[in-house]
């Protein structure tokens, strides 16, 4: 993607190159709490479920349209299948409408995808692989298919952060990536794209390594509705504009999705809204995982999964904390990129700083953030942002981006207008 062309219709942000952070989205004007700054459609979506599901239950089970990922309520009795449209070839992939079926047959569920997934399902060695590996194979099939059905989107995928094609990509491929490449080579070599790609070479181990790196760094999880304290991902998507958001451990924006509730064809769009006001020139950041993760876990995840050492203001403060439990092995590892998954450990130590006034003061923005912008629902750990402003009026209704609960900002004593006192990002 040509980043110079990337802008929003309202000119809310611009793309900047920031040393040590790569491309970044920076406020091109002052932005207000609740303001929608981006609506982004996926160029690629794939199911978060392993290719070999766990043993089927006899009770009614949940499934998703394999095009729009809306929930399908299907009971095990065949009489209730009338509103579901299966793929005429494999019957395994289900769609919620003739429209989704038709759209998928010429895009995400092309004949090559249909045949490849059937061949892979017949492969006993894949059944023995981890859930992660079985989901990765879905991504690879979806990504190689994209080159065929939408070469321009495939080029966009290749332009996102992550390894470029080349010898060094081979050094980084994991054993499961090598296994998946060999498997696809032996069962279902992808057809070459209709137009040449910018880089040389088609269907190589290096390209597979590159694609897996793009997936790891840029994928957003579309969440299941939060229920009974459980959160999980139903699908993963690549959102080309949203992929430019860098991470901050105290983000100033957060993203929402409304897969089941949005009407129309754009239900898998993600919407990014400002959590609080920010001035022009400030970098706009998301948190790549729930903000309640403690310092060592955040540092580890960001280094291992995203390849950088976080030096945000919150990390600088928390690096000096000595009384935090830094080695809690029970802290959940979480799911995948930017999925707002659950965590059982709150990295807040302000109650245990023994009344040290200076530390309490520098910790205050954290405490304020947690009090004001973190959902209080049990095990949710979602982030709250105000509903969009109406005209000049800011909303005092806060929406949780995980459980969807709406709360009145007055309940926690805020007016929705002020900016955090901590400089929450690197300005461009
Ligand atoms: C989804 S991409 C974000 C956009 C990216 N900067 C780019 O140039 O395309 C994620 C990558 O951005 C970089 N990144 C994100 N947040 C960062 C931060 N706080 N500090 C340094 N690098 C960061 C890391 O290289 C990370 O793997």
CATH architecture assignment of the largest domain: Beta Complex
Work out the strand percent.
15-25%
Structural class of the secondary elements? alpha+beta
CATH superfamily of the largest domain: SET domain
User: For this structure, what is the CATH class of the largest domain?
Assistant: Mainly Beta
Count of distinct strands:
17
Helix content class: 25-40%
CATH topology of the largest domain: Beta-clip-like
Mean pLDDT: 83
Q: How many structurally independent domains?
A: 2
Tally of separate helices: 11
Largest sheet composition: 3 strands, antiparallel
Protein name: SET domain-containing protein
Region (Disordered): 323-359
Biased composition (Acidic residues): 324-343
Organism: Rhamnella rubrinervis
Describe this structure in words.
By secondary structure, the chain is of the alpha+beta class. It folds into two domains: 3-41 and 241-412, Beta-clip-like; 47-59 and 104-219, no CATH class. 28% of the residues lie in helices and 16% in strands. It contains eleven helices and 17 strands. Strands 3-13-12 form a three-stranded antiparallel beta sheet, with no helix packed on it. The two termini are 21 Å apart. The chain binds S-adenosylmethionine (SAM). Residues 20-24, 161, 217-218, 243-244, 246-247, 306-308, 310 line the site of S-adenosylmethionine (SAM).
């Amino acid at each position: 993607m040509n980043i110079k062309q990337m802008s929003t219709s309202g000119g809310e942000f611009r793309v900047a190159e920031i040393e040590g952070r790569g491309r970044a989205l920076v406020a091109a004007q002052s932005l207000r709490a609740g303001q929608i700054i981006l609506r982004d459609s996926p160029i690629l979506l794939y199911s978060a479920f392993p290719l070999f599901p766990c043993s089927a239950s006899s009770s009614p089970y949940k499934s998703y349209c394999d095009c729009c990922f809306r929930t399908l309520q299907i009971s095990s009795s065949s009489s209730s299948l009338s509103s579901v449209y299966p793929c005429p070839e494999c019957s395994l992939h289900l769609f919620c409408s003739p429209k989704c079926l038709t759209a998928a047959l010429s895009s995400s569920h092309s004949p090559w995808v249909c045949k490849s997934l059937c061949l892979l399902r017949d492969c006993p060695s894949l059944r023995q692989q981890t859930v992660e590996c079985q989901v990765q194979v879905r991504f690879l099939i979806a990504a190689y298919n994209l080159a065929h059905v939408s070469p321009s989107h495939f080029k966009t995928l290749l332009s996102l952060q992550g390894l470029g094609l080349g010898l060094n990509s081979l050094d980084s491929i994991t054993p499961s990536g090598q296994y998946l490449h060999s498997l696809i080579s032996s069962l279902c070599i992808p057809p070459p794209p209709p137009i040449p790609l910018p880089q040389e070479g088609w269907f190589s181990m290096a390209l597979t390594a590159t694609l897996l790196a793009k997936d790891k760094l840029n994928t957003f999880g579309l969440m299941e509705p939060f229920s009974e304290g459980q959160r999980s991902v139903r699908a993963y998507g690549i959102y080309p504009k949203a992929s430019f958001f860098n991470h901050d451990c105290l983000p100033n924006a957060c993203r929402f999705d409304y897969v089941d509730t949005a009407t129309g064809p754009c239900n898998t769009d993600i919407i990014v809204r400002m959590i609080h006001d920010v001035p022009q020139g400030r970098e706009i950041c998301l948190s790549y995982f729930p903000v309640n993760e403690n310092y060592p876990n955040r540092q580890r995840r960001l280094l291992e999964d995203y390849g950088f050492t976080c030096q945000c203001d919150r990390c600088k403060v928390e690096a000096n904390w000595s009384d935090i439990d830094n080695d809690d092995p029970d802290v959940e590892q979480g799911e995948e990129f930017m999925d707002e998954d659950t965590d059982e450990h709150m990295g807040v130590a302000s109650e245990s700083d023994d009344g040290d006034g200076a530390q309490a003061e520098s910790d205050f923005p954290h405490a304020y953030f947690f009090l004001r912008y973190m959902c209080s629902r049990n095990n949710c750990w979602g982030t709250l942002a105000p509903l969009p402003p109406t005209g000049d009026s800011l909303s005092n209704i806060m929406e949780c981006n995980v459980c969807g609960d709406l709360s009145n900002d007055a309940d926690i004593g805020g007016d929705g207008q002020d900016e955090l006192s901590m400089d929450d990002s690197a300005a461009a």
